[in-house]
């Protein structure tokens, strides 16, 4: 077995083995190019491969931040393993273990002490390991010293036959009478919107900025302003990879919870998506027990998958 780092020309073998192993989450060469090869943080030394002759047997990808997500923050203690897989013909022969140890050593050599699977932004594939669909993968991570941190869920909802419930329409009228506004974003909103989104998560601001640069229509972004004209909430769809049925990000000022602003924004967004002829709405990441999680459930969303974000702590090189 030959172990080495990525070389130009390996892409086809990686995508083919990916689709052979990660059957619940196939990928295309185009998505692999966008999410991995064109990622500003991609380093070929972090993409570790095992070959039996000219046959790819396994892959583990490690990445650390080289371009700050926000400001100058490079998260110097953190690294990520966004994906790994080993051909069924080579499992339980030490291939995955060797690749993972090489990937972890790469991150350690880069000064990292915290290694996460797989909550990497901006280009995460999944939020974490799906234990139900990849039981062996979950057990492998545990065997390599990873520990479970928390378990976000993916949810979806059909939009077939959807219309805004009358109680939501009534609530919207009440808030508008108080001076709140709900509308699609305009150029005048963008600076404040991106700053507001970034205050929740730097990746949210990035997603909006990059989505618009990649021709995300402004009609797919919804903003709420309070009576003093301050932006206090937003949501959008189609912002990630241009997938129109994918919802998010979504945020409302926590200081004004209880007014139903998030409920209104979510339903206004779903009405617009249905008007476009979309048949469903989905997202990959929320916590079931948070206010957002409860809102989604009350709005008819169902949990489709559960993930575990995992952490492996490396001894400092100092």
Chain-wise SSE layout:
Elements: E1 2-5, H1 11-21, H2 29-37, E2 47-52, E3 55-64, E4 78-86, H3 95-109, E5 114-117, H4 135-143, E6 147-150, E7 153-158, H5 166-177, E8 181-184, H6 190-200, H7 202-213, E9 221-225, E10 231-237, E11 247-252, H8 261-275, E12 280-286, H9 291-298, E13 302-306, E14 309-313
Parallel strand pairs: 4-5
Antiparallel strand pairs: 1-2, 2-3, 3-4, 5-14, 6-14, 7-12, 7-13, 8-9, 9-10, 10-11
Helix pairs in contact: 5-8, 6-7
Structure description:
With 318 residues, the protein is an alpha+beta fold. The protein has 2 domains: 157 residues, Gcn5-related N-acetyltransferase (GNAT) (Aminopeptidase); 118 residues, Aminopeptidase. Helix content is 32%, strand content 26%. The protein is built from 9 helices and 14 strands. The strands form 3 sheets. Strands 1-2-3-4-5-14-6 form a 7-stranded mixed β-sheet. A 4-stranded antiparallel β-sheet has the order 8-9-10-11, sandwiched between helices. Strand 9 and strand 10 form a beta hairpin. Helix 5 packs across helix 8. The model has no long low-confidence stretch (mean pLDDT 96).
């Amino acid at each position: 077995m030959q172990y080495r780092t990525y070389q130009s020309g390996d892409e086809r073998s990686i995508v083919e083995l990916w689709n052979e192993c990660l059957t619940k989450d196939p990928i295309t060469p185009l998505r692999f190019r966008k999410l991995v090869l064109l990622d500003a943080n991609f380093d070929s030394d972090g993409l570790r491969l095992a070959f039996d002759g000219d046959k790819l047997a396994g892959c583990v990808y490690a990445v650390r931040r080289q371009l700050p997500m926000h400001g100058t923050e490079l998260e110097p203690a953190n690294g990520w393993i966004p994906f790994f897989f080993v051909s069924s013909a080579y499992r339980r022969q030490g291939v995955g273990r060797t690749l993972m140890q090489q990937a972890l050593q790469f991150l350690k050599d880069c000064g990292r002490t915290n290694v996460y699977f797989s909550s990497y932004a901006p280009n995460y594939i999944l939020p974490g390991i799906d234990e139900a669909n990849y039981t062996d993968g979950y057990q492998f991570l545990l065997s390599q010293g990873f520990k479970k941190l928390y378990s976000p869920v993916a949810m979806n909802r059909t939009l077939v036959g959807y219309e805004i419930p009358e109680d939501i329409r009534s609530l919207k009228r009440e808030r508008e009478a108080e001076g709140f506004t709900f509308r699609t974003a305009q150029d005048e909103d963008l600076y404040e919107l991106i700053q507001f989104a970034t205050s929740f998560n730097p990746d949210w601001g990035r997603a909006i900025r990059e989505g618009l640069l990649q021709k995300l229509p402004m009609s797919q972004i919804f903003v709420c302003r309070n009576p003093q004209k301050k932006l206090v909430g937003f949501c959008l769809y189609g912002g990630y990879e241009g997938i129109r049925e994918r919802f998010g990000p979504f945020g409302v000022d926590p200081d004004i919870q209880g007014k139903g602003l998030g409920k209104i924004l979510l339903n206004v967004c779903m009405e617009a998506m249905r008007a476009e002829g979309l048949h469903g709405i989905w997202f990959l990441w929320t916590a079931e027990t948070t206010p957002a999680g409860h809102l989604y459930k009350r709005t008819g969303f169902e949990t489709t998958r559960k993930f575990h974000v995992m952490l492996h702590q490396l001894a400092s090189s100092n």
